[in-house]
Amino acid sequence: MKFFAGKYIQQYQYKSFLPSKLSRGIAWQTEEVLELLSEANRKIGELNAYASFVPDVNFFIEMHKVKEATTSSKIEGTQTNIDEALLSERELNPKRRDDWEEVRNYIAALNNSIKRLDEIPLSMRLLREAHKILLSGVRGEKKQPGEFRKSQNWIGGADIKSAAFIPPHYADVLDLLSDLEKFWHSNKPMPYLIRIAISHYQFETIHPFLDGNGRIGRLLIVLQLINYSLLDKPVLYLSDFFEKNRTQYYDSLDRVRISNSLDQWLRFFLTGIILTSVNSKETFIQICDLREKYGVRVLELGKRSKLAQSLITMLYSNPVISPREAENKLGVTPATANRLLSEMEKQGILREKTGFSRNRLFELHEYLDIFRQ
Asked: If 362 and its partner were Cys, which of 26, 70, 267, 350 is the partner (CB 3.0–4.6 Å)?
């Protein structure tokens, strides 16, 4: 049975694309896809196993989330980089606040969604909650946060007449989303990675929100990886792969709709899983190697080595800190905090990044460099 993506429906002065329902069955198996699927399952399994043995892995996962948030938001046009995302609001350049808030909202939406997976099933309700957090108090706050659209939207172009793609009419959205949710939990045999790939395509095609569809669609991928027990913890994010191959990413989605070419989308998606799994495992290897180096360096600090090690562990979640923050986190005096930071700087563990004599910020620079790549 050949895959049929859907059809264009004449609306008033435009045609919208109505995707086929997934419950009708999907032909996806080709030799190349099956080979990539086998490799993708193996690589993601290796990553999951390795991550389970990494000490304090939850601290490192926080930085993975920050990188995912900045990268996924970058695809949508925000300019906040990972260094800015780690700053507190008072340390941020006010001109950069709008983009920074969108990134912080993405992190909050991701954290809430992962937590809620333990409480409610993977569902449209969960995505609506994520969307509400994502758009709260930012530029998209007037575009119905947490609500599916009740008007027509479009992708590309200054108006609907010049749009590159027009998703389905809003009257069809709820029915299509109901079908997609059933597809997530269907008992019909289908490999989970194939189910996730098709789900991402279908969600982006439905485009159920007025704003934030790309970010929610990419967030959905990691939720499905956890929900289907392909990952025990959120350690793999495809946004970096999509951003580096942005043209191919959008072209691959378009080609499914234009020529029913599901095969090429599955190959692109599975390649992303393979490469990202390998890169994510390498990131953990680099972190573990660096952790051992830090362990040797702190011994040079003598009586302050235990305090320094405690601070380093905290910095794995957010590798930028001020003297005041160090004072509060460690429960020490200002003088002790400043001396500790200065000695850690001399050992090459920390680097002062502002160049100021006041309002200084120190970063765990070698660790942060791993995520800047």
From this structure: 350
Distance (Å, rounded) from C-alpha 105 to C-alpha 295? 34
Predicted local confidence at residue 139, as pLDDT: 82
Q: State both tokens at 124.
A: 């449209």
Q: What is the model's pLDDT at position 45?
A: 98
End-to-end CA distance of the chain: 43
Q: 132-139 long-range contacts, Cβ below 8 Å, gap at least 24?
A: 133/105, 133/108, 133/109, 134/102, 134/105, 134/106, 134/109, 134/212, 134/215, 134/216, 135/105, 135/211, 135/212, 136/105, 137/101, 137/105, 138/98, 138/101, 138/102, 138/105, 139/98, 139/102
Tokens, residue 88:
């507190």
Domain borders along the chain are 6-283, 289-372
Identify the pLDDT of residue 227. Answer: 97
Distance CA 54, CA 95 (A): 39
Average pLDDT, the chain: 95
The CATH number of 289-372, from 1.10.10.10, 3.50.50.60, 1.10.1520.10, 3.40.50.2300, is: 1.10.10.10
> What is the CATH number assigned to the segment(s) 6-283?
1.10.3290.10
* 50: phi then psi, degrees, rounded to nearest 5: -65, -45
The mean per-residue pLDDT over the stretch 19-40 comes to 93
- Mean pLDDT, range 55-76, rounded to an integer: 94
- Alpha carbon distance 269, 308 (integer Å): 42
**Predicted TM-score (pTM) of this structure:** 0.94
* Residue 182 to residues 115, 126, 252, 265, Cα–Cα distance (Å): 22, 14, 24, 22
